[in-house]
Write a structure and sequence with these properties.
There is one protein chain. With 371 residues, this protein is an alpha/beta fold. The chain has two domains: 243 residues, D-Maltodextrin-Binding Protein, domain 2, CATH 3.40.190; 90 residues, D-Maltodextrin-Binding Protein, domain 2. It has 14 helices and ten strands. A five-stranded mixed beta sheet has the order 2-1-3-10-4, sandwiched between helices. Strands 7-6-8-5-9 form a five-stranded mixed beta sheet. Strand 1, helix 1 and strand 2 form a beta-alpha-beta unit. Helix 1 packs across helix 9. The longest helix has 20 residues. Keywords: Iron, Metal-binding, Pyridoxal phosphate, Signal, Thiamine biosynthesis, Transferase. It comes from Conexibacter stalactiti. This is Thiamine pyrimidine synthase. InterPro entries: NMT1/THI5, SsuA/THI5.
Length: 371
């Protein structure tokens, strides 16, 4: 079975504080905590409407990049929109799409190119929002490797997925190289320690949390050599539902997305408070590491269009490129209309732009670690 995940979510098992000690992924039980009414964005308290239970499958086992979801529910941002989400955690990165098709969940997060392939194969699913648009590439130690040319003859860890394999090969081609110029191995999910130990010249994935945290430590010079945008589209974390849900419950879809956007906006604005809620929910995880990861990853929820189009916007051109990538990799028979795959119809109105329209998210950290 082809794995379609990038390796960003593997950071849930990495400690980014001190010596980068390993951290467990935490419980995978469904979240069943209660939700209370939240204060409105104007600071006034409003009675929460009656809520509707929905099942929401996240993209991976419990990890710090999901802080916004747990904290947003606890703070009442879903409830104020009439949603009571039951969080589910998949046992594999391909599970959310399968669960949607089987009716085991109502909404899901899916990594990478999986939705483009599934839709091309006839799946009745649709992308209703883009949570993140990730700049995937190779993480390297910048005092050892400064560009792709310096990878010749070296061992590189490239994850086994359509996106990773195609984009790495395309990037090598832009440098006048082929896969024969490097030794490629599948690094699995334990990425950063082998890189720091010198076992790989580079490891594949969108590791902003780790790279940003490590970039602040002078003895660990980390950088990402990016695939996007020259060789490949950015790699999205997508919010999915079924065609049936859209047809039968369009207002529920709209309310669900507003609940996500408001939860995300609050968690980005007050990352320490959000991380504290997470730490209470998952006391077996390392709270210092999770806070460091969340503060590092929060800017990645601001895509190139977020300041203008708001949180969760999906860029049609990016998705056209993903569809074409799937066709080029022969994962689907042929490209198809982008409207079959994604829509922005259900995004919050007015647009939620403020979290990305400030200096922290304009200037923060991505440029420090990509090149």
């Amino acid at each position: 079975m082809r794995r379609t995940a990038t390796f960003r979510r593997s950071l849930g098992v990495l400690g980014l504080v001190g010596a980068l000690a390993a951290v467990g992924c935490g419980s995978s039980d469904d979240d069943s905590s209660s939700t209370s009414a939240a204060a409105g964005s104007t600071g006034t308290t409003a009675a929460a409407p009656e809520t509707r239970d929905v099942k929401f499958m996240l993209e991976w086992a419990a990890n710090a990049s999901q802080i916004w979801a747990i904290a947003g529910k606890e703070e009442g941002y879903f409830a104020r929109n009439g949603i009571d989400p039951e969080f589910q955690f998949p046992d594999d990165s391909a599970t959310p799409i399968k669960a949607l098709q089987a009716g085991r969940t109502d909404f899901g997060l899916q990594l990478s190119i999986g939705p483009a392939i599934a839709k091309g194969e006839g799946a009745g699913i649709k992308v209703i929002g883009t949570l993140e648009l990730l700049d995937v590439g190779l993480m390297v130690q910048s005092d050892e490797i400064s560009d792709f040319q310096e990878l010749k003859g070296k061992t590189v860890g490239v994850g086994s997925s359509t996106y990773n394999e195609v984009c790495f090969e395309r990037t090598l081609q832009t440098q006048g190289m082929t896969k024969d110029d490097v030794k490629i191995v599948d690094p699995g999910f334990n990425l950063v320690p082998p890189l720091l130990a010198g076992k790989f010249a580079g490891v594949n994935g969108s590791h902003y949390e780790a790279a940003i945290a490590l970039a602040k430590e002078p003895d660990k010079p980390i950088r990402i050599l990016s695939f996007a945008p020259d060789s490949c589209p950015y790699d999205p974390i997508q919010i999915l539902t079924t065609d049936k849900m859209i047809e039968e419950n369009p207002e529920l879809v709209r309310s669900f997305l507003r609940g996500i956007a408001e939860s995300l906006a609050w968690s980005m604005d007050d990352p320490r408070a959000a991380a504290a809620i997470w730490a209470e929910r998952y006391p077996d995880l390392d709270p210092r590491s999770d806070l460091a990861q969340w503060e590092a990853s929060a800017p990645t929820f601001c895509g190139p269009y977020s300041e203008r189009e708001g949180l969760l916007y999906s860029d049609p051109d990016q998705y056209r490129q993903l569809i074409q990538l799937a066709a080029d990799a022969e994962a689907i028979d042929a490209p198809y209309p982008v409207e079959d795959l994604m829509t922005n119809e259900f995004l919050p109105e007015p647009k939620i732009t403020e979290p990305c329209a400030n200096d922290r998210y304009r200037d923060e950290p991505l440029a420090q670690v990509t090149g």
